[in-house]
Design a protein that fits this description.
The structure is a single chain. With about 160 residues, this protein is an alpha+beta fold. It folds into 2 domains: about 55 residues, Beta Barrel (Thrombin, subunit H), CATH 2.40.10.170; about 100 residues, CarD-like, C-terminal domain (Methane Monooxygenase Hydroxylase, Chain G, domain 1). It is built from 6 helices and 5 strands, in the order E-E-E-E-H-E-H-H-H-H-H. A hairpin with a 3-residue loop joins strand 1 and strand 2.
Length: about 160
């Protein structure tokens, strides 16, 4: 169970802060929801309390894990399928996993591939999305600005 003010990650959307816990009636059913403010993109998300595990809502990483993320970013790219469709699906599964380490791997691999061979439009969008998800969690975990964390991220990718 999370509390108001907790920093959480909503897979596929990024990191945010639980702003409130509210009871809402949707389609005739009353449920309690976490209302999460996602600072990047100024979005709000509602997650039913009874679906937290199902959607993969989790706490933002701590200091030690931030260093592990940077290790992933500076390590060698892993082999990816040559077929773009297989590569896209494999990367999408990693992003959906909710693991920041897998998201960092996707960012690293796609950024490397973009520099070497270029990316399709779909993969460029995926890289932007994965990068936004990664950046949103790093910003909240480090209590830093988006610009500063983006510079640090860029440094690891180049």
């Amino acid at each position: 169970m999370f509390n108001i003010g907790d920093k959480v990650v909503y897979p596929m959307h990024g990191a945010g802060i639980i702003e409130s816990i509210e009871e809402k009636e949707i389609s005739g059913e009353k449920l309690r929801y976490y209302i999460i403010k996602l600072p990047m993109g100024e979005m709000k998300a509602m997650v039913p309390l009874n679906k937290v595990k199902e959607v993969g809502l989790r706490q933002v990483i701590d200091e030690g894990d931030i260093l592990k993320v940077f290790e992933v970013l500076k390590s060698e790219s892993t082999n990816m399928p040559l077929n773009w469709n297989h590569r896209y699906r494999a990367n999408l599964e990693k992003i959906k996993s909710g693991s920041i380490f897998e998201v960092a791997e996707v960012v690293r691999n796609l950024a490397t591939r973009d520099r070497q061979k270029g990316l399709s439009t779909g993969e460029k969008k995926m890289l932007e999305n994965a990068r936004r998800i990664l950046l949103s969690e790093l910003v909240l975990a480090q209590n830093d600005t988006e610009n500063r964390m983006d510079e640090i991220l860029e440094g690891y990718l180049n």
